[in-house]
Amino acid sequence: MSTAARPPRSSGGVPPRGAGRPHGATECSSSSSSPHLCALIGGGCRYATGSRDSTVRLWAPFAAGSSQAASCSSDTQVRPLRTLRGHSDRITALLVVDGVGAGAGGSPPPGPDPSPAVSDPGAVLASASADRTVRLWSLAPLRQAGGPASSSGRQPLVCTLRGHGDGVAALARLPGTPGSLLSGGRDARVKVWDVGGGGGACSATVRLSQPCQQLLGSCTGVGSGGVAAVGAAGVELLDVRCHKPVAWLRHTPGSRVVCAAAHGPCIATGGGRSARVFDLRRVGGGAGDAGGREAGAAAAAAARLFTITHPRQLPVASLHLDRLRLVTAGAQVQLHAQHSVFVWDAEDGRPLAQHSST
After folding, report:
1. What is the rounded distance in angstroms from the CA atom of residue 54 to the CA atom of residue 36?
2. Residues in contact with 152: Cβ distance below 8 Å, sequence separation at least 6, in sequence order
3. CA-CA distances (angstroms) from residue 210 to 28, 163, 207, 236, 266?
4. What is the DSSP string of 220-251?
5. Which residues is 129 bridged to in the sheet?
6. What pLDDT score does 217 carry?
7. Can you name the residues that pair with 62 across neighbouring β-strands?
8. What does the alpha-carbon distance between residue 317 and residue 230 come to, in Å, rounded to a whole number?
């Protein structure tokens, strides 16, 4: 239900996670911090993981007992292929960006299982960090056959994007614009980057009223340039074409937003004991232009579909939204615990089911 996928298992069958476990390979012994972010690169069991030790690692499937890259099947193991170094602080977000240009990626893979993002020579991996930068990395190591030996080669760093005044917390694609990348920072800025051809020019900056902690780049109810910037107090809807916020959606007063998700024209926010679902089609044009949050309060009230409340004072820690369901999970997920995952109707918030985490 969270926005980051589970990190892949290492070649020793042990997932690279847990306190004190390093971000590495078999027995996880190659660095000082476990990965806390994971991005699926196309299909075919290829991943990128980001760690608190400032490294990014690429993973690929290998046949059991072999050093050769393989297609994904029941007898393959996912192993670390290359470690990408350059950031000086923890990794905060990972995203595969298409349409950057063939010069940034190298040739398509000659072997089996050409994952879409891997076989696209214009795709790169973007990593955001608390060091105030975004780095673009070539996915060429994942296109090369031959196992770990292929990790030797040209420097995979394509370019470094600088301009934020504080740590970068979120990345998103600009809807309908290949070769463009959005970054949101703790400096209350969202920047639009033109990364086509492997460059890194900032084409626009949108000022927010709060630090950005998440970006939702698929908000179809805000027009073709619609993006949602999530902060602790609520969501600001942005129109990047005019470089300004256009509406403000407030979460439950007194509660801090810890998670958000979008599906079509709807956005869900979670924090405290509650989650709210908004329909962006109900937001009036220019609701946030003149009066800021005050003017946006009326738009938020009109857009709000429903609010759900967790039972047993259980805080909302993560959520998922699709056409039919809103799924929320509590922060206290323990073995043999009481129900901590809740399913609600996405149209009216009716409770549908409760599940244990195990």
Report:
1. 11
2. none
3. 38, 18, 9, 9, 21
4. GGG-TTEEEEE-SSEEEEEETTTTEEEEEEE-
5. 91
6. 82
7. 69, 77
8. 15
pLDDT digits (tens, 9 = 90+) for 97-152: 987 765 454 444 444 444 444 556 678 999 999 999 999 998 877 766 444 444 44
Give the count of alpha carbons within 13 A of 208, CB side only: 30
Q: Tokens representing 338?
A: 């009481």
- Residue 350: count of CB within 10 angstroms of its CB: 11
> Residue 118: what are its φ and ψ, rounded to 5°?
-80, -40
Amino acid 344 reads W
Report the pLDDT value the prediction gives residue 295, as an integer from 0 to 100.
Answer: 53
Beta pairing partners, 28: none
- Give the angle 175-200-48 at the CA atoms, nearest 5°: 70
Q: Quote the radius of gyration of the chain (alpha carbons, Å).
A: 21
Q: Model confidence at 159, in pLDDT bands (50, 70, 90)?
A: very high
Q: What's the topology of domain 219-358?
A: Methylamine Dehydrogenase; Chain H (2.130.10)
Residue 309 and residue 256: Cα distance in Å, rounded?
14
Burial letters 278-313, b for 16+ CB under 10 A, else e: bbbeebeeebbeeeebebbbebbeebebbebebeee
In sequence order, the 6+-apart residues with CB closer than 8 A to the CB of 28 are 10, 14, 16, 21, 22, 34
* Stated pTM of the model: 0.79
Please count the other Cβ atoms lying within 10 Å of the Cβ belonging to residue 211.
18
